[in-house]
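Same chain as my last thread, 321 residues:
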Amino acid sequence: MSQPSRKQSPKTPKAVLWRQGVHVAGSALWCDALRAHELCFVSSALALGKSRKRAGTLLCTPTTLQLLTAMGRAPQGPQLLSPLRRPFFWGTLRLELFASGSDPGAASLWVKLPSEERVIFAGLPSELATSVVEPLQVRQADSLVIAAPSAPLYVELPSQAALIEQILSSLSESRSRGVSLIVRCSSLILLAELLPKLKLPCVKLSVELHRALTFCQTLPGFPTIQTVSARAAKPGQLLFWPTTSPLPKLPDDSLLLTLPDGLSLSGLVRYARASGVRHVYLTAGFEPSVAAKLAAHKIVAEPIGPPEQLGLFASASSSLL
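reply #2:
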């Protein structure tokens, strides 16, 4: 006698999807997207590539738009500018931008859908203590989309003293070997903290980082830093380059150092728990070890991104089983 079939409960639809950028399901809202959409939130000036022509409306803070303009990354089309901590409606969506603690103008986005579900697109938040920007804030939500590239590598991020020592040690090695040193960093506030303490006579930055820091020095409280714009570094020289831009063509023997950015593993867990979320989507930093740490707090984690990126995640997960 055949057994009666069991009716399976419908799968809960995801709050966010990847469609050439993070798309809030059931809405016309994208976040840090790769092409034009009706409304696109930009979490920070360094979250976008060099050329972004958009037909939709750009949502960001006024300072982010100023930074995008200074860097030559300002997209075409209309803008919807909002200060931090001022909720507003866009159609049926309730939105609020709040401090991510990462860079001048950078923000996270809180969204409340008509279904009452709440989503946070955090961008690349930072716990770095500085007087230059407002400290990291959190909001209550059901789902969290976040980039935490340093989470798989650091339980807690290295101190500034340790980073300075590492940079100077790598620079000394590059000089002894007669090669250049490229330091990758996309955190403007981290550069503002580190560069004066390196005590170098002249600091070379990529064109975009130089433009960004030059603009930032017009803001209240931002330190004055002597830098020059460069596209390459000679042997024995140091060049800072953003992690969000492709590297220039380098000699095979050049040294490459990437500074940690965003939240550590502990910082990610603190952020997720403080937000009260039960689902975390990682645009960067997903590893089985990270998912396991969040699972210990009954928080489900999964990667979100381009199909080829998810394939890499799957391969890495399989190799660790």
